[in-house]
Amino acid sequence: MQFHEVKYDRAQPVDSYGPGFFRVAGEVIQGAILVTEDTVISWEGPDDLAPLLALAGKIDVLFYGTGADPAHPPADLRKALEDVGIGIEAMASAPACRTYNVLVSEGRRIALAALPV
């Protein structure tokens, strides 16, 4: 099997995560995060819609990390995103981070909003 180095160009990958934190592009952030190709910020959680809605027209899909366990996103979060043309895929935060890293390395128009594990 041949391995290839993943290149992120200017994108910011999720390097690691643990109890209550994420490490993105070498920076440790406590609590929930919102990561796009060129930005990483603290996020207040599913009731904090403004930064997510600001991504309308910039991303096609938001990966929503639900913490340690998989869960459905709140209905009003899903509806608000779909109303502005953003799809949402909910999964536990660990697979959401991994999926985000793979797809952002391919240049996809995506973002990650994740609750800590």
Describe this structure in words.
- With 117 residues, this protein is α/β, with parallel strands linked by helices.
- It has one domain (14-115): MTH938-like (Hypothetical Protein Mth938, Chain: A), CATH 3.40.1230.10.
- Helix content is 22%, strand content 31%.
- It has three helices and eight strands, in the order βββββαβαβαβ.
- It has helices spanning 50-53, 75-83, 93-105, and strands at residues 14-18, 21-24, 27-30, 33-35, 40-42, 61-66, 87-91, 110-115.
- Strands 5-4-8-6-7 form a five-stranded mixed β-sheet, sandwiched between helices. A three-stranded antiparallel β-sheet has the order 1-2-3, covered by helices on one side.
- The longest helix is centred in the last third of the chain and has 13 residues, at 93-105.
Features:
alpha/beta, Hypothetical Protein Mth938, Chain: A, 5-stranded mixed beta sheet, 3-stranded antiparallel beta sheet, globular
Helicity level = 10-25%
Number of strands: 8
DSSP summary: helix tally? 3
Q: Which structural class do the helices and strands define?
A: alpha/beta
SSE inventory with pairings:
Blueprint: E1 14-18, E2 21-24, E3 27-30, E4 33-35, E5 40-42, H1 50-53, E6 61-66, H2 75-83, E7 87-91, H3 93-105, E8 110-115
Parallel strand pairs: 6-7, 6-8
Antiparallel strand pairs: 1-2, 2-3, 4-5, 4-8
Brief account:
The protein is an alpha/beta fold and 117 residues long.
